[in-house]
Amino acid sequence: MSLNPNYKATIVILNDIESHGLIQFNKEYLDEGFFRNFIQFKKAFSHSMSELINKSNTLQISQGEMSIFMTFSELSYINAHLDLIKKFLKIIINPIKLDEGFGKDTTLEQMINRICKKMNYSEKLQSSIRGLFLLDFTNAITQQQYRIHKSGEIVIYPRDDETKKQLNIKDLADNAIQSTDILDAMLDWANGKTRTEDKKTETLDNIVNDLTKQVQELDKKLDSLS
Q1: How far is CA 219 from the centre of its chain?
Q2: 3-class secondary structure for 25-80?
Q3: For the whole model, what pTM was predicted?
């Protein structure tokens, strides 16, 4: 099975950043409590959603209410991954190497833009990287520029005809997979165990255990970079 393109693109970008000397371990951004909390959230979310879907026919709740709940839950799941991706970049990027540096309040979009600028990436490549990291999507959510309909569909930038976009639950699921692929690639890159092909579907417990090990390996590799 061929390697997932989102995973592969993330590895290529990280290797390029490393080859240009932008890597530095910033221990102040390594919040182990946040990582552990994320693992618990990921496990609880996956289990709860699975149970909810299995028992949906027995619940006293309308289809519209269920759709809205699932959509909002997916948004939280995606944003949690993107937040961790932002934290990861702050852990490994040397702020001195970026023209404007970064701080605790620097957003994911600002991190990506400053890295792209330092790397002298073309406009076309920068646009692709924006899409990879779901920047337009996450900006719409964090800026509350979205509407959720009873059908479960979400419209981002509803007041701007040029940027307005409608997403259904399948689109959100794709975004969730994409954010997971990026995070998986980052953690694999950190522990030096990048894949050569896509993994087979794993059980939830295996995924959680693997993520725990990856966090531990991340600490070791970043220590060696400092």
Answers
A1: 19
A2: CCHHHCCHHHHHHHHHHHHHHHHHHHHHHHCHHHCCCCHHHHHHHHHHHHHHHHHH
A3: 0.80
- Residue ranges in the chain modelled with pLDDT below 50: 1, 200-216, 218-219, 221-223, 225-226
Alpha carbons 222 and 226: distance in angstroms, whole number: 6
User: CA distances (Å), 223 to each of 33, 36, 92, 130, 220, in order?
Assistant: 18, 19, 10, 29, 5
CA–centroid distance for 77 within its chain: 9
CB 217 within 8 A of CB 191: yes
Q: For the CA atoms of 180, 145, 73, 217, what is the dihedral angle to 10 degrees?
A: 30
Chain-centre distance of CA 125, in angstroms?
19
Residues contacting residue 111 through CB under 8 Å, at least 6 positions apart? 86, 89, 90, 93, 102
Q: 154 - beta bridge partners?
A: 148, 167
Per-residue pLDDT of 5-47, as tens digits, reads 999 999 999 999 999 999 999 999 998 888 888 878 777 877 7
